[in-house]
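Quarterly update, task 2.4: fe (ii) ion-bound model.
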Amino acid sequence: MLRVDHAGELGARRIYAGQLAVLGRHPVAGPLLREMAAQEAVHLAAFDDLLPRRRVRPTVLTPVWSVAGYALGVGTALLGVRGAMACTVAVETVIAGHYNDQVRTLLGEGYEAEAPLRATLRQFRDEEMEHKETGLANEAEQAFAYRGLSKVIEGGCRAAIFLSERV
Ligand SMILES: [Fe+2]
Ligand SMILES: [Fe+2]
């Protein structure tokens, strides 16, 4: 659980780094992207702290996610603000759903001691939902080839989750 979350938040930070490299000076998108990136930094820091304390090693795919995340960020930002926002909507749809699954698991039997972690995941889930709302409010759905783009990004995120949970 912690390994995949760490991988996801690392990916998120890299996506925003890529988007900011292209859109950092944009008067509207720049501040929005910086705000979301700052929250991703907090999320990543939480897992950077949790992994060694819980004796979890990061996924071996960390360097892959780092490059892929940055490329996804640059690529979607090159489509414009709407493209960048469409990327956020697609990613957060998958990530928020994934955090939800984890919260549900931790509500189950045997995880009574994990209430603090559950609260953390719930808070992050809420913040990812806010990012998704930010994307929708900034015309994500009017991005070029929105449907196809969403499908591809969501599929990529699901594949990344599948792999990060295993290796
Ligand atoms: Fe996050
Ligand atoms: Fe996010």
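Highlight for this quarter: Residues 81-106 form the longest helix (26 residues).
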